[in-house]
Amino acid sequence: MRRYGKHTDEDDIRSRPNRRGNRPRTNIRPKHEDAAEGMVLTVDRGRLTCLVDGRTILAMKARELGRKAAVVGDQVALVGDLSGKKDTLARIVRIEERTSVLRRTADDDDPYERVVVANADQLAIVTALADPEPRPRLIDRCLVAAFDGGLEPLLVMTKSDLAPPDKLLELYGHLDIPYVVTSREELETGDAADRAREFLAGRVTAFVGHSGVGKTTLVNALVPEDRRRVTGHVNAVTGRGRHTTTSALALPLAGDDGGWVVDTPGVRSFGLAHIDPSRVIHAFPDLEPGTAGCPRACSHDEPDCALDAWVADGHADPARLYSLRRLLATRERTEGD
Q1: In 87-107, which positions are buried (b, 16+ CB within 10 angstroms) versus exposed (e)?
Q2: N or C: which end of the chain has fewer CB within 10 A?
């Protein structure tokens, strides 16, 4: 084995030739300190539409990000051609830290979680009061995902001209969730959109709901200048709607207060395999102090749970404890129950 002293001649050191003739690979990546900031508006087959300084930019993810994917709502750093002209392509080199994440899995046995939207302040859970019938278990699952992901829920009930909202309001009234009730006529006159804007102004709101509930119709009323394809008819046999929104899309709200609405594809299921039930209690500040006396790893639905005594002593409404346990048990039930 050849050894070198302190004063070796560079000619004595053999180097492996680069057969490809390009620069040698390195683990040192550029910091891109001059990268522009942008927001992801939609994702379509590996191409991301971003908003940068008021311009719409088409971009792709840099290889250095690896398998980390950007989703609608992400704040990103971009380099390259930022002109937004036709046939130009920028590059996303950094995804900023997220403030909230709405996730779901295909079902409760699927370990692969899908990020629906990032950095949203609010989750608008849209359900029809009839045609199709409400699915409370799906609403419960969306609520659990919202509480777990750091989003505030908003319940939007459509088609009140076909059925009254009383039953749903009674079921979710103890959760203190803000709600909006709309009818088909109000969607046409614009009254429904005006009422909904009071809850959306200045916030990023993701809309979620199963097909046929009127979610995209409401979004079209909120942002008429960027209308999406109208929702399909509800199947008379299955009672389910047809998917017409195929990708999530962020749209700006008009007005001085601004805000964004994110229209998402209709869901037929909302898996919660990724949810840690221990985080759901954070959405119940009146009950959370009572968990101090719970046994370790308490499910909050067992004989030794301290919440029963907490409620019995008058610290919280019994209906609130019932609501918490109903949400925690939703993973053990199917959404059609």
Answers
A1: eeebbbbbbeebebbbbbbee
A2: N
